[in-house]
Amino acid sequence: MKHQYKIEGMSCMSCVAKVKSALLTLPDVLSADVDKVTDTATVEMSQHIPISVLQEQLKAKDPKYSISPMGDHSMSSGTTVDSKSGLAQYKPIFLIFAYILTVTLIIQYLSGGFDMIQWMRHFMAGFFLIFSFFKMLDLSGFADSYMSYDIIAKRWKGWGHVYAFVELGLGLAYLTNCCPLVTNITAFVVMTISIIGVLQSVLNKKKIQCACLGAVFDLPMSTVTIIEDALMILMSGYMILTLI
Residue 40 and residue 37: Cα distance in Å, rounded? Predict the structure, then answer.
């Protein structure tokens, strides 16, 4: 069953991430979509949850948040909450990948040939630097969103803060070709751990926010996120094989 609620107290995308994270921690909540524009939350639950329980959950996250029912707004499981299509929702990610791909191919063209390893190194440098940048814009908001699905962040919220700096370090290491074997092994391990939580969320059909671009964009978790992480795993894995 799905119910729609009015949320008060949200002022930014970080608040959206916090409210969503708080709702998703309830055992009977299957998914939660929070919209800052309309200040509403659409919650899918396995069984009815009293409004008092939802309110207590939000207050525990931050006393300024309050939740109230919007009449009888139960929705069927087939109802689509988001007005945007899947492709439109992922426009920021597609644009970022297009920019990185274009720039790295231009670098190869200007170098007079195509070096696969060098291209992958530059591509991964751009990926980690740009994605860490968006996480840094609202580090706390990213950490709140990340802990809703990452297997490490669920147990230690601080991992969300550390992860953004790990991505930054990887980006700089790929850019400067510093310690290539260590860099690729680190990327392979970090992205493999990251994809586990993504796979669990997608396979369980949980509608939660993807934190790949931090709390700046409200991106849903889907196979696009899996492909994104898998691409980094494959690239780092391939470069490890060429180095050993």
Answer: 8
Domains and CATH numbers, the chain: 2-69 (3.30.70.100), 86-243 (no CATH)
Task: Give the distance from CA 102 to its chain's centroid.
Answer: 24
Report field, pTM of the whole predicted structure over 0.85: no
**Position 232, amino acid:** M
Q: Are 141 and 17 in contact (CB under 8 A)?
A: yes
Greater confidence (71 vs 190) lies with 190
pLDDT tens readout for residues 161-172: 999 999 999 999
Burial of 125 (0-12, 13-18, 19+ CB in 10 A): buried
Is the four-CA dihedral 92, 93, 94, 100 of positive or negative sign?
Answer: positive
